[in-house]
Amino acid sequence: MATAAVQTAPPPAREVPSTFMASVRGWWSAGEKQSAASEERLLRRLPFFRADAPSRDTLSPSRDGPIVAYSSQIELDSPKHFINTLSMVSTSPAPDAPPPAILLHGYGAGLGFYFQNFLPVAQWAGRRGSAVYALDWLGMGRSARIPFTVKAKRDDIAGRVAEAESFFIDSLEQWRVKMGLEKMTLIGHSLGAYFSVVYALKYPTRVNKLILLSPAGVPRDPNTTVPSREVTDVQDKDHSGSAEPATKKRVDELKREQQTAKKEESRTRRIFTYLWEEGWSPFQIVRSSLFWGPMLVGKYSSRRFTGLTEEETRDMHDYILNITLAKGSGEYCISHLLAPGAHARLPLVDRIDKLKIPVTFVYGDHDWMDPKGGEESVEKLRQAGNGQGKMYLASHAGHHVYLDNPKAVNDLLVKELDR
Fold it and tell me: Which of 38, 55, 280, 364 has a CB 3.0–4.6 Å from the CB of 397, allowing a cystine?
């Protein structure tokens, strides 16, 4: 059961750049240079962040401290294909260090969404002589926005899914090779968690363990998720509490809450959902809204991130605006992976039992992802002889569980990385 927490009054809702002139300035200044600057403003909250990548040969614990963080673009095999990467590396690598942890964001997001989680996991890396990396998926965030195409015919479901998945997981494998990593622990959120599982299935010898934060695409039931909430979900107003092992009673309560929300879904949201599933991207609204795009993002930021300070909200708004205005690419994967009703065309629950590694599921106690999928997956793993499946519910948290209750999730991440 979730631990009790003292209720505190939420800060008043903030409107970030919402005037017409502020929208004009936001639109006009958007571009790669501004995108890099908006990301760096989030990363500079790390006391050990450097603007320029240091030479690994010159790092010194006495001079640089236990950990150094820096950004870089890792070139892949194909021309103009690159992965935007935040590296947080120990200055005293240990020969027996655990595999590095890789933070992987969800649909249409970017590595900056994890800015409240970087410090604890980086400190873990410094303590264990390991490393932590945060990536932007190819075609998202500040990674290369290359054309996303699927050649399989519409009725070739397996072919469409395989092509869409390969776009992401094969680029992750290329990145791993370029970085010289033998094994990795993958920490993925939502669609990033889905891709983490798919990567582990295709490259099983390269994954040490999986930590899945509100994973997408797990259950079979077409009536359990509301995909529009990936964009419209509002943050819980209480940001305290902890992550506790999931009990059947709490999972059933969350399931009933989701079913009630599904019944109350508005007609507008259902239309939004339909368009998404038909290959339309919600981010097209911002790109096609001329100068009003920044204002739309501002309204989303002020509603979604109620637990952040005014400065943090402003920086997140700027960051989201810049990665949203970038050329559409990887976001168009969604209709190939999710069928009408928003369930996965090839659900993970039917594939996950092939994994032989530890798998940890984490859901918010007000999540809109179906925890029954995680519960069934843990049981499937157990029946296949893998007793290393676990599931947790984080209190006072929704789908963006790592942002909604960062302390609980950070404590759990460090615990699972040390497990």
Answer: 364
Check if 367 is active-site. yes
For the segment 151-159, the average pLDDT, to the nearest whole number, is 91
User: Of 38, 71, 90, 190, which is the active-site residue?
Assistant: 190
**Environment class of 231 (CB within 10 Å of its CB; exposed 0-12, middle 13-18, buried 19+):** middle
Contacts of the segment 4-10: beta carbons below 8 A, 24+ positions apart: 5/238, 5/240, 5/241, 5/395, 5/396, 6/240, 7/238, 8/238, 8/240, 10/237, 10/238, 10/306, 10/307
What whole-number distance in Å separates Cα of residue 354 and Cα of residue 295?
A: 46
pTM for this entry: 0.81
Q: Is 240 labeled as catalytic in the residue annotation?
A: no
> Taking 90 as the threshold, does the pLDDT of residue 202 lie above it?
yes
216 CB-contact burial (10 Å; exposed 0-12 / middle 13-18 / buried 19+): buried
Any domain includes 255: yes
Q: For 145-157, give the DSSP string.
A: -------S-TT-H
Domain-embedded: residue 155: yes
Q: Catalytic pick from 236, 315, 318, 367? A: 367
351: its two tokens: 């594939």
Coil, strand or helix: which one is 239? coil
Biggest distance spanned by C-alpha atoms of the chain: 61
Tally of domains within the chain = 1
- Give 280's DSSP letter: -
- What amino acid occupies position 58? T
pLDDT-wise least confident of 35-49, 322-336, 356-370, 381-395: 322-336
Structural domain including 272 reads 45-281+328-418
pLDDT of residue 61: 82
pLDDT of amino acid 152: 93
Q: What is the pLDDT of residue 302?
A: 60
Q: What is the CATH number of the domain that holds 397?
A: 3.40.50.1820
Residue 200 domain-assigned? yes
Active site residue 335: no
- pLDDT value of position 15: 46
**Residue 351 placed within a domain:** yes
pLDDT digits (tens, 9 = 90+) for 336-383: 897 765 679 999 999 999 999 999 999 999 888 889 999 999 999 999
Burial of 184 (0-12, 13-18, 19+ CB in 10 A): buried
Alpha-carbon distance of 333 to 338, in angstroms, equals: 9
Whole-number mean pLDDT of the chain? 82
Selecting among 105, 189, 336, 399, the annotated active-site residue is: 399
